[in-house]
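Justification of resources, computational component.

The compute hours requested in this renewal are based largely on the per-chain cost of generating structure records like the one below. Each record pairs the submitted sequence with a full structure-token output. That output is archived, and it is also reused by downstream analysis tasks.
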Amino acid sequence: MPDLFWLSDAQMARLEPYLPKSHGKPRVDDWRVLTGIIFINRNGLRWRDAPRERGPHKTLYNRWKPWR
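The structure output for this chain reads:
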């Protein structure tokens, strides 16, 4: 994958207070989702073109939507 983006543990720790808490069904890992959202935005891709290791494309979009 060209231009993969990874968040460090320190960066994730700073973002943790802003992430919603899980209620009920286990959430897709926040680290995977955030790096996926950044990857999509940096590369100008459609949500469905997100790498699978970043989580389901619908999850990426749904987590990004409130922040736009």
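Residues 61 and 68 are 10 Å apart (CA to CA). The chain has a mean pLDDT of 85.
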